[in-house]
Amino acid sequence: MSIEFLLTTIIVVISPGAGVLYTLAAALSRGARASVVAAFGCTLGIVPHIAAAVTGLAALLHTSAIAFQVLKYLGVAYLLYMAWMTLKEHGALKIEAGAAPRSATQVVVSGILINILNPKLSIFFFAFLPQFVHPDQPGALAEMLELSAVFMLVTFVGFVAYGLCAAAVRSHILSRPRVLTWMRRTFAGAFAALGAKLAVDR
What is the distance between the alpha carbons of residues 39 and 165, in angstroms, rounded to a whole number? Predict the structure, then answer.
């Protein structure tokens, strides 16, 4: 594993996206434990994309407009659903001190869906991983699997760091109703913007 791969991975992971947003929202709504569970779910959500890249199935999404569009609009619909639920103060993103706890399974499934319904991730890994693998040498598959494992580890650690930082200021936010209102609107708008961005991607 090269230092270039590690640095590139860190930059990609810390760039704000739907997974980071979901982890932050989980931290603010449910606390540190929920943020770790959300980060785990988001990390699991990239496993199918990595598997698709490693096996070459991502090429199908790259060449088949129908396959890409179907998966893309499922992702758009889910992001818009998250935006609506956030705005209406329901579900996983209800930021309230006395909110009833959600099961770890529910938080994980939501995190998985956010990433698994983003077809750009398959194409990203299909283009990203081979740049750091020597295909003409034996063990190329094992090397790609190793890089994939490192990427997942960095993703989990990075998302957990985001979540723990947000959980640290949770009490200050919960004590300010106006801040809560703007937080909900901001998260809802961010999810909607991510959905709109995904909708116009080709």
Answer: 13
